[in-house]
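This follows on from our talk about sequence and fold. Please put the record directly below this note.
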Amino acid sequence: MKFNFSPGQLGYGAPGRDGSIGSTGLAFYFTDRDPISDFVAIRAAINNNEVLWISSPPGTKLPGNRKYTTGDLIIDPRGFVYEINLSLTPQKYYDTSTALNKSQFFEQKSSGEYITSFGFYRYLNKQDASLRFIIDNINTTDSTRNYTLSPSKIYGIEPKNFTRIEHDDTIDISTYNSFTLYTSGINEITDDDMSLAVVRDTNTNTFRLGNLDASGFIRNTNLIFDVLSLRHKKENGTLFNINTPPETLITNYEINAASLFNGMFHHNPSNFTITEGSGTVTIDWTLTDFTTDPSVKGHLYLEKYNSSGYLGSHTITDDSMKPTILHDISINGPITLTGSEDYKCFILFEKNGWERSSVIKTLNI
């Protein structure tokens, strides 16, 4: 604040008039002292026109040679408002019974109770069905708000052992399903399957994210990661083995067959064809058009094609039911078959025991 242009000073306001001949302007001051227990120090500061901060050196005057006057206001650390009246004794101020607006969010603990080690009043978040607030860190010895009573346990852990508890039901679930850890959803019990918790296992010093019911059954809860990249880190020596826990995520580190994945594998390149000739059928391919990985093997599957389906009785020796398989085919085709039949074929690609099929090509003669 520019004290030279404050109320009661000469030239009040940038274009203001001479304040020295008019009424003295009023001001308000903040203090970190308790106006009740520190009234002697505050009274002395008012009498000597000194600042009200404990940390200020003794005898520090108000800026701009300003003087306290009747009607000035003092705001204490709790937000309560006091008004100066120089004619009052022994104090030079009184409690106006007003405060900066905090009543919508907080309420004072039982009258006369202090946290004595610091000397501050205790304020709590209001618990009101119409006011849906707020993150609160609370001491369980506080008899007016004991969060350990309801609920008695969260995910098998007493609430007093949580550093912070969040609750979010401020968004209409019909338009947007709110999500927080630990709680998501609107209705207790019926929406429990929508909840998620991060829980630390004290035995293994590991964390898990999930949702268990009271009996320890895993609820089927959805978790969506709306991120650009999500990775599951793997170290050398952590390949799957007989001791790998059930339902452990498997990644490309174990599969090591990325060349069979979408984006690296093309299941229907243009030069993979099956065509009819004069009494012949020709199948052509180039394996590197499917994948550029030279360690991937291709196996050509060929069988007669019955477009009407297989109805009635058939014997296992029927040629129409026997596929022909050419293992580990060369990089490039073609092959030519003698005969005029309906055929279908595809190439099965293999790497490290994982398989991926090409599109099925059919020829109806």
